[in-house]
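G., before I forget:
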Amino acid sequence: MSIQVILAQALLGLNVGVFYAMLSLGLAVIFGLLNIINFAHGAMYMLGAFIALIGYSLLEQWFGISLQIGFWASLLVAPVIVGILGVLIERLMLKRLYELDHIYGLLLTFGITLILQGLFANYFNVSGTPYPGQPEALSGVVNLGFMYFPTYRLFAIVFSLVVCFATWWAIEHTKLGSRLRAGVENPDLTQAFGLNVPLMVTLTFAFGAGLAGLAGVLAAPIYSVSPLMGADLIIVVFAVVVIGGMGSIMGAILSGLALGLVEGLTKVFYPPAASTVIFFLMVLVLLFRPAGLFGKEK
Amino acid sequence: MTNRILFIIMLVAGLTAPLFAYPVFVMDLLCFALFACAFNLLLGYAGLLSFGHAAFFGGAAYITGYVTKEWGFTPLLGILAGAGFAMVLGAAFGFLAIRRQGIYFAMVTLALAQIIYFLALQMPFTGGENGLQGIPRGHLFGLIDLNNSLAMYYFVFVIFLIGFGIIYRTINSPFGEVLQAIRENESRALSLGYDVDHFKLLAFVISATLAGLAGATKAIIFQFAALTNAHWQTSGEVILMTLVGGLGTVFGPVVGAITVGALSHELSAFGSWVQVILGTIFVVCVMVFRRGIIGEIQRLASRKQG
């Protein structure tokens, strides 16, 4: 087995890893403030990809609007639409469940997942539709010295990493971030200081949802767009979150990247285990470090 | 009192069901009812949300199918083998999952169940996406031919009653009281000297075993172990059934399984819209109908008594 093959799989693994990182980051941000796990996160990722697809090729056919939303515009439009959906879900539904056991939030978002998934399964092929809008500038391959790598995938890796680290920086080093962290630490006290915590909660949920939508747009040109694309991914991301622990933002990012790499390398060494390796790692973490690698025991 | 009346209604309805309904359909409902009751023991009484119960339900079906088809086990032995497998699997999953609480517990069980799903998809004996087909129904005690649908029906009904009885007995035992104490306030139960983890694990194993019993029985009825039974969506369906019927009520899961089962059956012509409708019911239940059908009835009954 040549070193090239291993490096290539590692890069492809990193490519998957940035999606894990973006999704687990969104889950962690939401969990920090709301204490709920958003099961619909996968469905929002799918929604992002479908918004890109519909915006690019179906607006005229479906709505009679002669408008085409290209890839670059989708990177903005899709997260905004998914974010607005997030606002609606939080304000109209989740808000009423905060007083109850947190499992109700999980169950509600599971129901929303079924609705979204079912809606898209009515109109689109379950086996997937290719996204035709990959920009010219990103087609082809780049020579990395040791191998040729698709330009688009390289772009997706770099772009996602920038988004992840920018989010981390904003939370850890800006005024807004410090307020957010205060809200996570002690919501009542933060509110007593005159900060609008309910608004923060809504915007945080919208932001997490938007991240999922953005990841969906980035994934669209790589994987074909399918109603089930989010569901399969989100369960792996749950395992990533259990492994990393949701105590830290950086922890969520790093464990997402690392586990993507591990999965990619498993494809080289023992392909049949590639789809389950992350779950087995989760078992090991539960045995030896139950709170997760970056987690704090509450 | 209400429970006794409901039990008599269930018994009479169960015994007479083949007279007015298609037996295979009722058997399917009975399996899901038992599955939901087993799930309810965990969520409704111990407060533990398992999002991975499909692994026990679907996994047991494969084991039962394999041992009856390839090793020539009798149907009863095959079902016991399936339930036994679910018990061992439940012990392993439970041991891992109770290390985390609340929302993490749900995520861990979901992820663990996904391992079983991928194994069912990839292992050589399971038939991949087609499932394990051609499982024989065989003869019960070597005498009664289960290919006769009435014989099969009453066999399934007896299994259901046994499973239901075990759950009823568990809930109304000192063990069940401790489980409810853990649900209400885990730290207090711990401070009273109860080994909380031990109780949770035992509840998990009982629940997994009975979920396996239901899945194993289903494999014999349909002569088929389906991949969908091990899918996370099945885990979601059993949650929905329990929620619709009434979380933490004895008969709620039975009513919920019949309601959801009949509904999916009626709506099956609408394709993917079924999912949209089930999702909507999920949302409505969580938002405004958290007591479920039986829960609401009990509330009205107790209000009437003053």
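Chain A is about 70% helix and 0% strand. The interface with chain B takes residues 31, 35-37, 93, 96-97, 100-104, 106-108, 110-119, 121-122, 231, 235-236, 238-239, 241-242, 272, 275-276, 279-280, 282-283, 286-287, 290 of chain A (CB under 8 Å).

More on Monday.
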